[in-house]
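Researcher: I'm preparing a figure for a lab meeting and need a structural model of a single chain. I don't have an experimental structure, so a prediction will have to do for now. The sequence is pasted below. Please return the structure as C-alpha cells so I can convert it later.
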Amino acid sequence: MSPGRLINTQADVAEGADWLARQDQHLKRALAATGPLPLRRRPDGFAELLRAIVGQQVSVASARALWSRLEQAGATTPQAVLSLSAEELRALGLSRQKARYAHALADAGIDFHALREVPDAEVIGTLTAVTGIGVWTAEVYAMFSLGRADVFAPGDLALQEAARMIYDMPERPKERALREMAQAWSPWRSVAARLLFTYYRVAKQRDGIT
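Model: Understood. Here is the structure written out cell by cell.
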C-alpha cells in the first residue's frame, strides 16, 4: 500500500485549507483569523525522534539546551547513542528515563527510509512499538516529518483547546471526542491540525497570554 496523499508544498496546505473551509463554516471563520497556514515540514529520521524524546515534559528552552549538548557530543545517531552508557547520556543532561528511551530508539533498528512508503497506521504502529514513543509523538512525526495529509493528534492539549474555542464548546474535548470530530476533516486532517495549532497561537496572542 502507498502512503497516500502527502503535504510537500505550501500549495498542498492551501488546497487542504480550501477544502476544509468549504466543508465547515467554523473552520472557515478560523482560517479568516489565521490567514495562510504554515507548511511546518520537519526532517525525518532518527535524530528527529530523538529530539522529540529529549523535549518530553520540559520547556522549549530546556529542550533546545539539551539537544545542543547532544549535538556537540555527536550523540544524534543510533551508533553514537548506543556507544554511550546511560550514565554518559545522563552526564549530557538526559534523565535516567530519557536515557533508557534513547537507547531503545537507537536499538530499534527502524528503517526510516522505508517508513516513508508505508501506510499511516503502520508508521504509528512501528514507532509506538519503541519504548518512550507514544501515540502523540508518532502522530506528530507522521504529520510533520513524513508529510502525511490525513493524520491528526487529538491528544494534544493545544488542539483540544483550539477546537473548544473554534466550536464554542463549554469545555475542552477529550482525546476520544476530538478524534471523532476530526473524522469529518478527512482527507485533510493534518491541515486541520495546522489550522488548530495556528489558531491557538493567534488566540493566545490576542488574549495577551504568553
